[in-house]
Amino acid sequence: MKIAVMSCIHGNYEALDAVLLDIDQQKAEKIFCVGDLVGYGPYPNQVVEKIRALDIPTCVGCWDEDIVEGLNACECSYPSLLAEKRGIQAHEWTNQEITPENRDFLAKLPHSFKEDNLAFVHGSPHSNHEYLLPELDAFVALERVISTGADVLFCGHTHVPYVRTLDAGRLQVRVNGGEKNQEISFNSPLKQIVNVGSVGEPRHGRPNCTYVIYDMDTQKIQLREVAYNYHKTCAAIIEKGLPAIFAWRLANGLEFAERADDPTHVCTR
């Protein structure tokens, strides 16, 4: 069975519509989403309503969580005061736009879920705000997958797609226990982290949407890239009074320094 996994739609309905069409053409039998339905983009309600209407299993993203609970990221989530100011502006705008029904839907989304030997999270199993970057220490990366009890961990949050295979091997862990130190050894089978990128705000250097097709029978992973009319979304960002830099970012597929200096930091608020 082929499944589709997507993330980080960020209120970009035009992008979501294009990806759903591509998913249909790829004949995927089921769709999963790993969060961030809202934030930055001009159509938060339309995106949430489409996900609800299609009954797509979805875990909560950091933006979805923040709209429900209030801003939850610490100051290190923004590299500058200006970036933080833009983020707060986008949060306040989205908070005013979202309907009570859609807010309630976001509030009920799980942090993670599983399907057979597959696990789905937004940032990491530990936190929606943690970035699982491709260069993450191999032991840490392996621990994140093992903690889910799955073989393949699907995530988003970074907006840049990648597939990382963690080869099978023998691991040793030393546990300090006062006067006695204990060494624990175990064999780990092959594990994978699949970052599905972003539907609505890609940051891989192009404005095209990204998502993943995964064949559960053959374990084949296909990173899909879909072109769409991003100009329409850019115009809507400006028209609705959101920061103009969001339109520039979308059109160029660039991040514009919106990531924390220490992407491994887990916010504690």
Q: Give the CATH level 1 class.
A: Alpha Beta
CATH superfamily: Metallo-dependent phosphatases
Structural class: alpha/beta
Rg on CA atoms, Å: 19 Å
Low-confidence runs: none
Largest sheet: 5 strands, mixed
CATH-defined architecture: 4-Layer Sandwich
How many distinct beta strands? 11
Mean pLDDT, to the nearest integer, reads 87
CATH topology: Purple Acid Phosphatase, chain A, domain 2
Give me the side-by-side strand order of the main sheet.
3-4-5-9-6
What is the count of distinct domains?
1
Q: What is the overall shape?
A: globular
| Percent helix range | 25-40%
Order of helices and strands: EHEHHHHEEHEEEEEEEHH
Percentage of residues in DSSP E strands: 15-25%
What report would you give on this structure?
This protein is of the alpha/beta class and 269 residues long. The protein has one domain (2-165, 191-252): Metallo-dependent phosphatases (Purple Acid Phosphatase, chain A, domain 2, 4-Layer Sandwich), CATH 3.60.21. 31% of the residues lie in helices and 23% in strands. The protein contains eight helices and eleven strands. Strands 3-4-5-9-6 form a five-stranded mixed β-sheet, with helices on one face. A four-stranded mixed β-sheet has the order 2-1-10-11. It has a two-stranded antiparallel sheet with strand order 7-8. β1 (2-6), α1 (13-25) and β2 form a beta-alpha-beta unit. α3 crosses α5 (100-107). The chain starts with a strand and ends in a 17-residue tail after the last helix.
